[in-house]
Every structure is written in structure tokens, then in C-alpha cells.
Amino acid sequence: MTAGRGRPSFSEDRRQAIRMEIAEAAAELFSDRGYEATTVEQIAAAAGISLRTFYRYCPAKEDALTPVFTASVSGLVDQLAVRSADEPLVEAVGAAFAEGASFRRLADAERARRLLRVMGSVPELRTRWLATGRELQDRLAPVLAPRTGGDPDSMETRLLAAALIDALTVAMEFWADERSPEEKDVMVFAARALRYLRIDDRRRATGGAGGDQ
Length: 213
Prior knowledge:
It is a single chain. The chain is mainly α. 69% of the residues lie in helices and 0% in strands.
């Protein structure tokens, strides 16, 4: 269908762009005002859309951030997929995290930390965040398998994917925690969490085998 004069076509790309505009507006408002204090009307106004359009894309307020979560999933997996398989896994995952869209959203450290605290404290948002982590595990396993020589559907590969995602999640939670030391660089926490797993040490000890014994 041809778009009207001066109006963009509502192609899938455009729909995705609108979803992301809503998500970015919601993220900014949630971090600045808090989840409960932010209304759907305020999110719609910040995104430059009508309330009716908001509900066309988001069934409820807690769904507004979903595209941010999804973009984080895609960014990490896509970045890791193009890195050399010879690179140590922990280094590759850390670099993929640093280069992905999710990391760029952490550039405004104080606002990002506030948003992460909101995501961790609001049950509805935390449920969606954890669901996205599970989706990331499902997408990460096939990318990890060629590096480990394992089967992407094996328990070992899925455990590895889960461990890596959980390590990054916990690192971001500790970085965001108001009780944490005033360390401003999230990569310090991410690198520390990934090193603690000692994945590359274990792989060297087993000759780089994927663990599908």
C-alpha cells in the first residue's frame, strides 16, 4: 500500500523503528522518574505518538522496554558470531558485549544504572528481562558450538551459554547497585565476572573439547 503524502510507509522496518522509539522514551522516563511514576501517556508523548499508537505496539506499560531487551540479545550474538573462533572465548564475549548496542546504552552511566535498578526491582520488568536472557541463551548456543566443538543442543553448550549470560547479568546488577563502589566502568565488572568462570582455563585443561562426553 502506498503511503500518504509526507507520511512514511508502515513497513516492518518502520514498525520496528517505532517500537524502538517507544522503548528509548520509556527507558529514559523510567530511569529519570521511576517506573510507577511514569504513565503510558508520558511515554507516548515522549515518543511523539498518540496513545492509540502506543497500545497498538505495546499491550501494557511493562512491554515498552521489550525492544531494548531484544536489541541487546541481537547485538551480543551478532558481534560474537563475527569474531575469530581462535580468540579466547571470555575475551570474545567481553569484546562482543562492549561492541553491542546494549553496551552503548550504558554510556550515560548514571542514567543506565538507574534504569537497571528499576528493571531489577519491578517484577513485571524483571520477568521480561529474565525472559530475554533465556532467549539469548537459545540464540547464543549455536554461536558457541563451533568454538567449543560441541553440539549446540547439548547440555554442556546450553550450560555454557547460560553461565555467560548470567555472568554478564550479575555484573550489570552489581555495577548498578547503589551499594557498589563508585566504579563507573561496567566493563570492569563484566571482565571480572567472565574471568571468574575460568572457562578458557577449563577448556585448555581438557584440550579445548566441548565437553559433550
